[in-house]
Amino acid sequence: MSRFWKIALIVIAVLIVGGVAFRLLHKPEASAGGHHRSGQQSGQQGSAPGQDGKDDNTPVPVTVEPTVKQNVPVYLTALGTVTALNNVTINPQIGGQLWTINFKEGQAVKKGDVIAQIDPRTYQASYDQAVAKQKQDQASLDTAISTLNRNQDLVAKGYVAALNMDTYRNNVAQLKATVIADEAAARSAKVQLDFTKIISPIDGVAGIRNVDPGNVVTTTTSIVTLTQIQPIYVIFSLPEQNLEAVRDAFQNGANKLEVMALDRADAHPLDTTGYLQVVDNQIDTATGTFKLRAEFTNPDKRLWQGQFVNVQLRVRTVDGGLVIPAQAVQRGPDGDFVYKLQPDQTVAMQPVTVAGEVGDSHVMVSKGLADGDQVVTEGQFRLKPGSKVKALKPGEVPPPPTLSDAEKAKLKKQGGGRRGGG
Predict the structure, then answer these.
(1) Where's the Multidrug resistance protein MdtA-like beta-barrel domain (predicted)?
(2) How confident is the model over 10-39, as a mean pLDDT?
């Protein structure tokens, strides 16, 4: 027998065995008892959903709160940078050996405090010379004036020639000019002497010093940088589409727009309320933003030079804005919505427009709700449009579930059957 026929016979045998096995496994039950068992199984399967499932009309307990009308401040938010009111780099105005440093790094200094001392001896000598020269020329002037006055009396008697009087007058005028020049030289020497005491020009905080006592300093030597932080500035930027609103509010608000500086978590104000001081006169073409500057009193020095803060600029106040808890607002494929309580104690999905945040836990709604509408704030995950609900107040606990009359009768029947069987 050829190899082909061997393979064909094997395939036919496998098909015959498979058909017989299929018939045996799917043989119908012949007895009535089998049909009875099948009916019981079918009845049990059909009754399972009714036994395990819950009634769709059972109210879902949810927390609801009404919309509230209140005056809502409207803020513009931005990231700002704290900038000192004044930054002054202290350089000597004369050269010399630095004798002493009279401040501690990080210490607050007052305007007029002597913060460093340069060797004054050379400048003191120059000043003394200038004063001595002034006194010398003043004495010569006094003598020339006395000579002129005496000769004026003698001219009338013919003892002195009138030509000599011109010489006396010119000598007095020359000496007067010399005295004036000496006074200026003395003042200049005094200024140079005063420059040996390096004075703080502002109230501020001293930074890290750049030179130690004993070094010879020049006018290009930086000794320390003083930073004035009371009051202090916060500079921030806003998108150009906010420019008109800010300018209108700034002009109409008598230049008293309130600004708050918050920490990086937006949780706590870092200072008392500041006020907008300047709106920049140009828009940055690279970023499409414009700069603003606010001033804070900074009494506790919580704002520090170079610090980043979150800024809230209040541009206006909405009278009678509708406010709801923030957790009532849900995000859907078509935008924000809330579950609104209906008169028949069902809920409807109501689209809303959120106009802004109100504090940490509420939002203002500009469209979609009316005053007094009830919205679901807890339990939304169990709801769908048309769901029956049991409305609870915030903090109210729902009562424990109760059995229906049918369920009570069923439990009673089951209990009686168990006792009878015993």
Answers:
(1) 231-315
(2) 57
Q: Where are the beta strands (DSSP E) in 91-201?
A: 96-101, 108-109, 114-118, 197-199
Tokens encoding 351 = 């689209």
Residue 354 CA to residue 332 CA, distance in Å, equals 14
C-alpha–C-alpha distance, residues 273 and 313, integer Å? 10
Judge whether residue 32 has pLDDT over 60.
Answer: no
- Residue length of the chain: 422
Report helix, strand or coil for 106.
Answer: coil
Give the Cα separation of 386 and 349 in Å (integer).
9
Torsional sign, CA 94, 99, 104, 108:
negative
**Nearest one of 380, 373, 374, 353 to 364, comparing CA atoms:** 353
Q: Tell me the average pLDDT across 303-308.
A: 92
- Domain 61-71+320-392 coded CATH 1.10.1200.10: no
pLDDT in tens, 156-191: 666 666 667 778 788 889 999 999 999 999 999 999
* Residue 91 pLDDT greater than 50, yes or no: yes
Superfamily of domain 75-84+224-319: Efflux pump adaptor protein, beta barrel domain (2.40.30.170)
Residue 139 to residue 178: CA distance in whole angstroms: 11
Question: How far lies 240's CA from each of 95, 282, 288, 289, 315, in Å?
Answer: 50, 10, 6, 5, 15
Q: Are 117 and 213 in contact (CB under 8 A)?
A: no
Q: What are phi and psi of 166, to 5 degrees?
A: -65, -35
Question: What is the C-alpha to C-alpha distance for residues 329 and 339, in angstroms, rounded to an integer?
Answer: 8
Distance of alpha carbon 408 from alpha carbon 399, whole angstroms: 18
Q: What is the mean pLDDT of residues 102-114?
A: 93
Strands (E), 147-269: 197-199, 204-206, 216-217, 224-239, 258-262
Please state whether the predicted TM-score (pTM) of the whole model is above 0.85.
Answer: no
Domain positions in the chain are: 61-71+320-392, 75-84+224-319, 91-217
- Report cis status (omega within 30 of 0) of the bond before 231: yes
